[in-house]
Amino acid sequence: MSETKIALVTGANKGIGYEIAAGLGALGYRVGVGARDRARREAAVGKLRAAGADAFGVPLDVTGDRSVTDAADLIERQAGRLDALVNNAGISGPTGPGWEQDPTTLDLDVLRTVVETNVIGVVRVTNAMLPLLRRSASPRIVNVSSAVASLTRQADPAIEIGPVMAAYAPSKSFLNAVTVQYARRFAGTGILINAACPGLVATDFTGFHGPRTPEQGAATAIRLATLPDGGPTGSFFEDGGVIPW
């Protein structure tokens, strides 16, 4: 089996996900570009290869059981194992003025859709990739979260945490809680799993508002995907260190 490390990044055709893939590729990883849209996926793979990265496309819709199973089968054929999984794909759901999602008027279908992608999709992909990750000498899982997932920060009126987002923010809190449960289950196995906050990044996800570049937003996830053995697990990080739950 090749000694080249293998990574899969979901939602990797653009924005932060693309830069995570690019960063891992620059470190010598062979990178699977997980994305639903064929044209965007192929364009991202072409761009990564032009930059010198060893990249391959992975058709992947995190909300579909068959799609995820097929993605695992493809990686099995392409590489035989997985060393790093970055669960980056996510959605905010529709927002009102100022990005607000009012809990008193929240459409329950919106809430279900956001949780299906941001939480259930992560569980679906992680569990499908576990047999491949267990073949790695140093498997790493990174769940891309957000500072708005921090209940400590959300509950502190002295901290500016942005607008009320009654679907998106709780979905990321749910994701963080799931991350901790995986960390407990993986204790002693060598699998390290952590949550990463990219910060407020100027991408189409934020309407290109935010002080950070996609490259800056990718940095924490890349660091966590490449942790040395014995590194932290079951924690929540941003550039400056650990974020309180």
Task: Output the keywords.
245 residues; alpha/beta; 8-stranded mixed sheet; 8 strands; 40% helix
What does this structure look like?
With 245 residues, the chain is an alpha/beta fold. The chain has 7 helices and 8 strands. The protein has an 8-stranded mixed beta sheet, with helices on both faces. Helix 3 packs parallel to helix 4. The protein is globular and about 50 Å long.
In whole angstroms, the N-to-C terminal distance is 39 Å
Helix fraction, binned, reads 40-55%
* Strand portion: 5-15%
- Sequence of secondary-structure elements: EHEHEHEHEHHEHEE
How many separate helices? 7
Mean pLDDT: 94
Uncertain runs are none
* Structure classification: alpha/beta
How would the global form be characterised? globular
Strand order of the largest sheet: 3-2-1-4-5-6-7-8
Write the layout of secondary structure elements.
Elements: E1 6-10, H1 15-26, E2 30-35, H2 38-50, E3 54-59, H3 65-78, E4 84-87, H4 108-133, E5 140-144, H5 151-154, H6 168-185, E6 192-196, H7 214-225, E7 236-238, E8 241-242
Parallel strand pairs: 1-2, 1-4, 2-3, 4-5, 5-6, 6-7
Antiparallel strand pairs: 7-8
In short:
The protein is of the alpha/beta class. The protein has helices at 15-26, 38-50, 65-78, 108-133, 151-154, 168-185, 214-225, and strands spanning 6-10, 30-35, 54-59, 84-87, 140-144, 192-196, 236-238, 241-242.
